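Hello,

Our lab assistant flagged a job as stuck in the queue for most of the afternoon. It eventually completed. Since we weren't sure the result was trustworthy after the delay, we are filing this so someone can double-check. Below is the sequence as submitted and the structure that was eventually returned. Let us know if re-running is recommended.
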Amino acid sequence: MQDKPFFASVKENLNGRPGQPMVLGVCKTLAARFQLEVWFVRLAAIALGVFFTFATLVVYILLGLFLDETAARSKSLFEGLGIWFREFTDKVANWCHCSASGTSRHRNH
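-- returned structure --
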């Protein structure tokens, strides 16, 4: 087994797979625009997220929606999440309705 230095391992993990964004592709897009290493931008995003979680998340999502390179992927991700959430709430509502109607029938007998 080949041991890599810690920093090299972190850098490799933060680079992600070639051509594949890790979440929305915001860090990769920003790195390309500002001619920086992708791992550096991702590390900065993680560090900001640790100290300013909500603000970092809001800015990340907004950049994902408004950057030309990431807009289509971001919109499709949120559309998919919306569909999943709607289906999930329908299942929960059906389950609650079945449980409530089953309980009321049981009380009448």
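-- support follow-up --
The delay was a queue issue, not a problem with the job. The result is valid. The chain has a mean pLDDT of 82. The CA atoms of residues 85 and 91 lie 10 Å apart.
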